[in-house]
Amino acid sequence: MIHGVHSNEIQELSNKLFSEILKEQQKVMAVKPADEDKKHLTEEVLKEYEGYKGRGFFFNYMASGRGHGPFTEIIDGSVKYDLIGAIGPNLLGHSHPLYIKAHLEAATNDVMMCGNLLSHLEPYELSKTLIDSVKGSRLKHFWFAGSGSFANDSALKMLWQKKAPNYRLIAFQKAFAGRSIATQDITYNAAYREGMPSSIKVDHVPHFDHTDPENALDKTLNALKEVVKEYPNQHCAIMLELVQGEAGFVYGTKEYYEGVFKWAKENGLYIWVDEVQSFARTRELFAFQHFGLDQYVDIVTTGKALQACGTFFTEELNPKPGLIAGTFNGSIAALNAGNKIVRYLTEGNFYGENGRIQQLEEKFISKLNHLGNTTCKDKIGYAGGVGTMISFEVGDASKETTSAFIKKLFENGIVSFLAGKDPVRVRFLLPLALTDEHIDEIFSIIEKTAAEVL
């Protein structure tokens, strides 16, 4: 629905513009090398940008703004499969009709950004859609934030206020929570906070151990018991990603999470689930729904694929006035798109048994395993993941080998990224725009790249 100015003439022009944009974007539909007369452009622009930014870039990638489905065009004219989606936001792929519609409808509005003090219909409608999507849980409210890190900051503030003065937090080894002053302490990788003072007290315990699944729960529970024994009556909550993205898509079982969560409840701790990356990417809209944990969650943070970020919380955790605020809910276009995306995903054939997300998961993992057992034996090892979050190991799974592989993969036409440490994995965040024909070509490129690098 258009909430700004509208008339029959505006609608006709908008429909025509929508059609023309889509027709032009649909011309970008296949992998291709750089144009001879543009080969220099990407490197030159990125070198200049490096001076402004203060650091270099991992890939020679500068988008042209042209792309369609799983394909993205770079300013040198080359076209590649985008299997990382800006580390998560672009779940639907490039130039999806919903994205185009959201932009055009937002253009009829009188402002670009809307905020908390003076609201608009877009955040109201998206909030309603989101709360409807978690009806099986005790989550009753949603508060917008400017990023996933800020959504996590809001969650932490709510928990602290409710449990004051119990300010310690339990998180998990290999966790990633964001780049804010608070969330960098929750993040497990010490290299991400080098030179920083400790701002909050966080105790990290082992996550699910795939190498010893039978004893994984006991290992975690034993560590939890030691933590609360060392710091009695000092913790407010357990915070975790059900699917650890930065770790290379590490995740447990329903039984494992239920064991952890029941222990948390017995010990008076709230349960905070970070779904900034996993939102919309498992076999249900939320990972906590995928694992059947609706009854346990007290606070859930989300972002990325939603095109907006924010925090779900129960009535019990509803904070006192003044604790959480902020100028922006987000852009009109992004909030409009978020509402369309949730409805599109939940009304379409994406979730549940035999949904498209399950099909993508099974196709990628089975094809990776097939390569590892045949033409890429000793070159591709572990392959796994859940939903559209897929990872695999190449060669000795070192950072050097994996970096070389994904850079050659980039040259050959696929954009991916790293994840994890000891082992380091190739990470895909698959777009839903992939067809089976695309997948066949992608695996031909992976096989070619493995032969060239490993």
Written account of the structure:
By secondary structure, the protein is of the alpha/beta class. It has two domains: 31-90 and 353-453, Alpha-Beta Complex (Aspartate Aminotransferase, domain 1), CATH 3.90.1150; 115-330 and 340-347, Type I PLP-dependent aspartate aminotransferase-like (Major domain) (Aspartate Aminotransferase, domain 2), CATH 3.40.640.10. It has 13 helices and 19 strands. The strands form five sheets. Strands 5-13-12-11-8-6-7 form a seven-stranded mixed β-sheet, sandwiched between helices. It has a four-stranded mixed β-sheet with strand order 1-2-3-17. The mean pLDDT is 97.
Q: Counting H and I runs of at least 4 residues, what is the number of helices?
A: 13
- Terminal Cα separation, in Å? 52 Å
**At the third CATH level, what is the topology name of the largest domain?**
Aspartate Aminotransferase, domain 2
Strand coverage percent: 15-25%
Number of domains: 2
* CATH class categorisation of the largest domain: Alpha Beta
What do the pLDDT scores average to?
97
Q: Which blocks of ≥5 consecutive residues have pLDDT under 50?
A: none
Summarize the main sheet.
Answer: 7 strands, mixed
CATH architecture descriptor text of the largest domain:
3-Layer(aba) Sandwich
What's the helical proportion of residues? 25-40%
CATH superfamily of the largest domain: Type I PLP-dependent aspartate aminotransferase-like (Major domain)
- In total, the number of strands is 19
State the shape: globular
Please give the oligomerization state of what you see: single chain
> Which strands sit side by side, in order, in the main sheet?
5-13-12-11-8-6-7
